[in-house]
TrEMBL record:
Signal peptide: 1-29
4Fe-4S listed as a keyword: no
Annotated protein name in UniProt: Streptogramin lyase, gluconolactonase family protein
UniProtKB keywords: Signal
Signal among keywords: yes
GO terms assigned for molecular function: electron transfer activity; heme binding
Length: 419
């Protein structure tokens, strides 16, 4: 089933206050310390996210808390701004308990960032389209957006109610597809006409489309994490087929297509990788070492090797699909580093350590097996802060890397340079 709607385009700044989201978050909130400003913080912050996001942060000075909050909502005219930031700075000051280990090397990187317009949207999963534009998903804002990297111009498109896009991708014609993570849809935006076409899941148990990718035949493959399914949508016939993972609660997450057109899927709830037969959609699980292994995402190198992040054990892994051999390397920051996003670029594997504060960008040299890491910044000069988690990274055509910092609504282009 599908239907089409016209989108609304937003260009200015808005604040995000979603009552339903706030109610859900308060159910998982952790009590804040007593002190002057506590009730103000609860009133302003828990309307959009649980207060445990505050306690799990890196911690900041008062000026840095003010800079961080400014990426979420506008308190510039609020007479209580100083009380709010003062409370946060007193009870959640800068901490070094989760600092990453940052091995040095010969590569330098340049971070170029764009602050997207709508505050509090949690921008994520940027990708380069065929025309060179950059698209992202603003999950909490229920929008997808476009950046012209040459001019910096941005445009945001409001999606059908309740879509809450988890990710975006594009087809060969330049249409932008998104996964409607909260309303059980996969949608397509035609950038030329502004029309959005929604495709609803044929099974009511298929509730949360997650990550999507096109194969060379123009077929869209996608995961549904908590529904424990993998889906296939043929845009020509508009038919969707779903299959359930062999292992209960395997939680399929990242998905990539190898050079033979075969989808491979990462298991975020079990120690496995899954190979999908592109014709029958038969699933074959490949178990990975250690029951504590979980995999957020994977990527496939030009030699066919499958590289994955062992999020559960803080390791980088390589799986040989021809022999079944598995090799893993401890991530620089250790077992609690929680590697998350991953991309293979030439002779290097890039990923992030999302369990660290700040979130670290890591480069692994496939030839020398050497690691090098950088803290991922947001802002410039006195307003430079370190906050956010990279949940997906993808290469550009010229060999650079697109990442994001959701907490500060930043899309970031990483340009590596060797010396």
């Amino acid at each position: 089933m599908k239907h089409s709607v016209k989108i609304m385009v937003t260009m200015g700044l808005t604040t995000m206050g979603l009552a339903s989201l706030g109610s859900a978050n308060r159910a998982f909130a952790q009590p804040l310390p007593e002190g002057a400003g506590k009730q103000l913080v609860e009133a302003h912050c828990s309307s959009c996210h649980a207060t445990n996001r505050i306690s799990s942060s890196l911690g900041y000075s008062q000026s840095d808390w003010q800079a961080l909050i400014a990426t979420m909502l506008d308190l510039s005219d609020n007479p209580n701004q100083a009380k709010i930031t003062g409370y946060l700075a007193e009870h959640f000051p800068p901490s070094t308990q989760r600092n990453p280990k940052l091995p040095q090397g010969e590569i330098t990187v340049d971070f170029k960032e764009w602050a997207v317009p709508t505050l509090g949207q949690r921008s994520r999963d940027p990708i380069e389209a065929p025309d060179g534009s950059i698209w992202w998903a603003g999950q909490w804002g229920n929008i997808i957006g476009r950046i012209d990297p040459q001019t910096g111009d941005m445009r945001e498109y409001t999606l059908p109610a309740g879509a809450k896009p988890h990710s975006v991708t594009h087809d060969s014609q330049g249409n932008i597809w998104y996964t409607g993570n909260k309303n059980g849809t996969v949608g397509m935006l035609n950038p030329e006409t502004g029309k959005i076409t929604e495709h609803k899941m044929p099974d009511p148990n298929a509730k949360d489309p997650h990550t999507a990718i096109f194969d060379s035949e123009g077929v869209l493959w996608f995961t549904l994490q908590h529904s424990n399914m993998i889906g296939r949508l043929d845009p020509k016939t508009e038919k969707i087929k779903l299959v359930t993972m062999p292992t209960k609660n395997a939680r399929p997450y990242g998905i990539k297509i190898d050079k033979n057109g075969t989808p491979w899927v990462a298991c975020n709830g079990s120690n496995c990788l899954v190979k999908v037969d592109p014709n029958s959609m038969t699933l074959r699980e490949y178990p990975l070492p250690d029951n504590n292994t979980t995999v957020r995402r994977l990527d496939i190198a030009d030699d066919g090797m499958i590289w994955y992040v062992n999020s559960g054990r803080g390791r980088l892994g390589r799986f040989n699909p021809h022999t079944g051999e598995v090799k893993e390397w401890p991530s620089p920051s250790g077992a609690s580093s929680h590697p998350y996003a991953i991309a293979v670029l030439g002779d290097a594997v890039w990923y992030n350590e999302s369990g660290m504060r700040p979130d670290a960008l890591v480069r692994f040299d496939r030839k020398t097996e050497a690691f090098q890491s950088w803290p991922i910044p947001t802002g410039t000069g006195d307003e430079r802060i370190y906050s956010g988690i990279v949940r997906h990274m993808r290469p550009t055509r010229d060999g650079n890397l697109l990442i994001h910092q959701s907490a500060t609504n930043r899309i970031i282009l990483v340009t590596p340079q060797s010396h």
